[in-house]
Amino acid sequence: MGTPWVRTGPSGRRGAAQFACRGTDCRAGVPRESRYRHSLTAWRCLAAGEGRLTWGPGRRSGWPDPCGAERGDDRLPPRATTSGGTVAESKIDGDAVRSRVETALATNAPGFETFFLARLLDASFRYLPEGVADSDVEVCLVSFPVAPFLFNPQGTLHGGIIAMAMDISMGHLLNKATGATGTATIEMKTQYMRPIGVGTATCEGRFLRRGRTMCFMESRLFDEAERLCAHATSTWKLPG
């Protein structure tokens, strides 16, 4: 089976070579420098059975390399492995996932604590200190059960889910303490310290500094054994 990529000449942008795909489902050439676009095109071509996907040496791991076809490099990328060198596998209970999604669809409503993603996480919310006025609240606790359908390929909680949960804890604290609904995350930095498996994870959102137009916040995520697994800081803009 022939390679799907052939050289068609310079693209005119910083001297990048232009490539076209011989696969019938691949209609346009893509610049060599546009790695994201040609990776999608290459995967479509491979899925259609129109050639081989190439991964050239010396390029970033995980990006298809159309030039590799010219070098005869038809290796596929390495599979994700755990620290022990074995491919991670997580068994997903299809019935449990369907039940979670159906419950989220049936119970979600626009608004804080009840929006769809919070329901999909099956998140619960607490604000501390308890029994004080909303403006005096200092901490938002967001707890949710970690399930295999939230895992990354290595069998632990996906970093995107971790960031989302911590963002939720900070956003809900800001809403509770200020009553504002038009807040926006300006920037967020996340540090991943420890992998998280099945169990209950809890995020603690807190203020670092409260201003009239900007708030600086942090969130810490703990696993069921109360070990610190991730930390995030963020800047939020208040409406007005």
CATH fold-type name of the largest domain: Thiol Ester Dehydrase, Chain A
Shape: globular
Indicate the mean pLDDT: 76
* CATH first level of the largest domain: Alpha Beta
CATH superfamily of the largest domain: Hotdog Thioesterase
Uncertain residue segments: 1-88
Helix percentage range: 10-25%
CATH architecture of the largest domain: Roll
Strand order of the largest sheet: 4-5-7-8-9-6
Distance between the termini: 61 Å
Largest sheet: 6 strands, antiparallel
Instruction: Give the number of DSSP strands.
Output: 9
Structural class: alpha+beta
Compute the gyration radius: what is it? 23 Å
- What share of the residues does DSSP label as strand, in percent? 25-35%
Return the string of H and E elements.
Answer: EEEHHHHEEHEEEE
Give the helix tally: 5
What is the total number of structural domains?
A: 2
